[in-house]
Amino acid sequence: MKKSSGYGILVVILVVFSVVAFIAPFERTSIFWASYIFGVISVAFQIPVWKKSMGKTNLKSRYYRFPIIYIGIGYLIIQLIFSVIGMSVKTIPGWIILVVDVALIGFAIIGAITSEAAGVFIEKTEDKVQKKTAFIKTIKVEIDNLTVKTDEAENKKALKELSDIIRYSDPVSQEALEELESQIEEKVKFLSVGEGNQKELIAEIKKLMEQRNIKCKELK
Question: Any stretches that span the bilayer, and where are they (predicted)?
Answer without folding.
Answer: 7-24, 30-47, 68-89, 95-122
